[in-house]
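Q: Could you fold this chain for me?
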Amino acid sequence: MGTPAGVCPPGRKQESMPNPLGTPNQPGRGGLPTPPTGWPIGSYPTYAEAQRAVDYLSDQQFSVEDVTIVGVDLMQVERVLGRLSWAKVIGGGIVSGAWLGVFLGLLLGLFTDNLLGPLIAGILGGIVFGVISTTIPYAATRGTRDFASTMQLVAGRYDVLCEPKTAERARDMLAKLAL
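A: Sure. Below is the predicted structure, expressed as structure tokens.
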């Protein structure tokens, strides 16, 4: 009798499945979220600087698989892009709907002898859909949100952590980068 699926037979070491990079999955990386581990080897005010530090380690042939970039002091930032009005909402619906209609009309036109008919029908249908899909949510706000914005998750700083076995070497290498 064999062993159930997913159970390692007695006496054999269980191998982890490789990820798309072809490397075995490490515990805590992938699957369920786990807090990052390791010793801090650098702290940077921007993600670009933390990324530059890891890239430097990689260029120096350091095993970057032991390194993690962690955003600390997370903030949700909403950047206001501008005021919304009915004209902007309807205009945006017309434009986005027309583009959707062009795509669908061209796609349907591939299967007919006449390209113009499906294209015009697609554009008109897309405009109707676009206007409906933008005006209903805007009307539902009843003027409580008359602005457009984007949301971002940003960190106050970015710490670079490394596994303890190689952290001291990595910290020494990054000290040379700062010179």
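A (continued): The two ends are 64 Å apart (CA to CA).
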